[in-house]
């Protein structure tokens, strides 16, 4: 990804910052579109992965919808020009103002996560003399086999309505007058690389669908969420995830009734590989068994390694001298402020440019001002600077 010219240009900018390869973003989005279109699948991009304007505008222009999890994301989707009829709104704790915003905007659907939430949406819609579309988020109790912090589809997780509440929710739905049931929604977790978990999900969906139909509730929309993982180890070799195999699997296993739509909420797989956190080496210092390369980016810029022990490939863009092992750490006053232990990179010196790869998803959006640092800036390959 980084040729000499680009490295030279990146070297002129104050570090740390995020750099987005917009060509790669567009190729990824067109791969998603091409494969999803084969089955008329609809994709709502999960805003939580990255909500930068230039990225959202590309996604909007490809015709994808928006999957939002806060009123702020719904607002951003509307401001960016996403069609309200393509905005879905999920989350276990929607505040009243967020529900009002969604109803006023006429969004496609609320993905409802509990019976009390369903009743409040009905109440607020009633006060406004409106009918709110809702999909029920069901907890499928399927294991996503990923990091436990990003597993969401198990009964022990806070998300969705559990099996034992189904009878009750069906009764409540039939009583409520200001909500329209349009579908069922699932999401089992994130960074899922074993397609077998999605197969398990499809089988559960097939079962649950039958239950709904036999209870005279017809889900027009089957929303299977997001979660497709990316290859953090080989960002250049596998820069675009295998969307073909992913959508094919759903086509093979999901049993659909006439007129049903299948929706997806992909986040990471659409934006992760196009983003990199660019940093500079401040100091190299000897440790007991190791050498530290202290860089000017920290966990406030990219928290995934500290929070989930996540792996991000680290490259020294400046040096080609023989490889050495370093603990690559940031300046923040926490031992967890580390991007990788015993990382092999070409010999590092003060001023070397370091790229932390595959950081386009859940990178910048999770940045904080811890230690009163400034939020990282973002640059885009088609800025004119490159
Ligand atoms: N739909 C729902 C309801 C979700 O909760 C999520 C992600 C997605 C879709 C998008 O999933 P994706 O396609 O991006 O896997 N901060 C963590 C990831 C948290 C994911 C939360 N939910 C990380 O850095 O790995």
Description:
The chain is an alpha/beta fold. The protein folds into 2 domains: 4-17 and 273-380, Lyase, Ornithine Decarboxylase, Chain A, domain 1, CATH 2.40.37; 22-272, Alpha-Beta Barrel (TIM Barrel), CATH 3.20.20. Helices cover 30% and strands 22% of the residues. The chain has 11 helices and 16 strands. It has helices spanning 4-10, 22-37, 53-61, 71-79, 96-105, 115-127, 166-175, 195-214, 243-253, 268-271, 304-308; strands at 17-20, 42-46, 65-68, 87-89, 109-112, 132-137, 179-185, 221-223, 261-264, 275-286, 291-295, 314-316, 323-329, 338-346, 353-356, 377-380. The strands form 2 sheets. Strands 1, 10, 11, 12, 13, 14, 15 and 16 form an 8-stranded mixed β-sheet that branches. An 8-stranded parallel β-barrel has the order 2-3-4-5-6-7-8-9, surrounded by 4 helices. The longest helix is centred in the middle third of the chain and has 20 residues, at 195-214. Bound molecules: ligand LLP. Ligand LLP binds next to α10 and α11. Ligand LLP is lined by residues 46, 48-49, 67, 90, 150, 152, 187, 190-191, 225-228, 265-269, 304, 308, 362.
């Amino acid at each position: 990804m980084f040729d000499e010219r680009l490295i030279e240009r990146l070297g002129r900018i104050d570090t740390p910052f995020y750099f987005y390869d917009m060509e790669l973003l567009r190729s990824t989005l067109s791969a998603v579109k091409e494969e999803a279109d084969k089955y008329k699948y609809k994709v709502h991009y999960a805003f939580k992965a990255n909500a930068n304007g230039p990225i959202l505008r590309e996604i909007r222009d490809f015709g994808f919808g928006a999957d939002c999890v806060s009123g702020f994301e719904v607002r951003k989707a509307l401001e960016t020009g996403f069609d309200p009829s393509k905005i879905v709104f999920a989350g276990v704790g929607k505040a009243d103002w967020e529900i009002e915003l969604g109803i006023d905007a006429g969004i496609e659907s609320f993905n409802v996560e509990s019976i009390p939430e369903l009743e409040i949406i009905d109440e607020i819609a009633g006060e406004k003399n409106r009918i709110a579309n809702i999909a029920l988020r069901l907890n499928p109790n399927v294991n996503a086999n990923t990091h436990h912090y990003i597993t969401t589809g198990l009964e022990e997780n806070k998300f969705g309505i559990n099996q034992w509440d189904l009878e009750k929710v069906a009764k409540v739905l039939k009583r409520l007058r200001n909500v329209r049931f349009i579908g069922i929604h699932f999401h089992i977790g994130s960074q899922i690389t074993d397609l077998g978990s999605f197969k398990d999900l499809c089988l559960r969906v097939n079962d649950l669908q039958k239950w709904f139909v036999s209870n005279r509730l017809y889900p027009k929309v089957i929303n299977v969420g997001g979660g497709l993982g990316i290859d953090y180890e080989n960002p250049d070799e596998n820069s675009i995830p295998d969307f073909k195999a992913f959508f094919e699997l759903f086509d093979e296993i999901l049993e659909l009734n006439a007129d049903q739509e299948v929706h997806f909420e992909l986040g990471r797989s659409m934006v992760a590989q196009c983003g990199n956190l660019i940093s500079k080496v401040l100091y190299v210092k000897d440790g007991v068994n190791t050498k530290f390369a202290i860089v000017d980016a920290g966990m406030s810029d990219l928290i995934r390694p500290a929070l989930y022990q996540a792996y991000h490939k680290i490259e020294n863009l400046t040096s080609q001298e023989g490889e050495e092992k370093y603990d690559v750490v940031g300046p923040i006053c926490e031992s967890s402020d580390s991007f990788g232990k015993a990382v092999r990179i070409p010999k590092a010196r003060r001023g070397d440019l370091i790229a932390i790869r595959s950081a386009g998803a859940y990178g910048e959006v999770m940045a904080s001002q811890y230690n009163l640092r400034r939020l990282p800036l973002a640059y885009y390959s088609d800025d004119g600077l490159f």
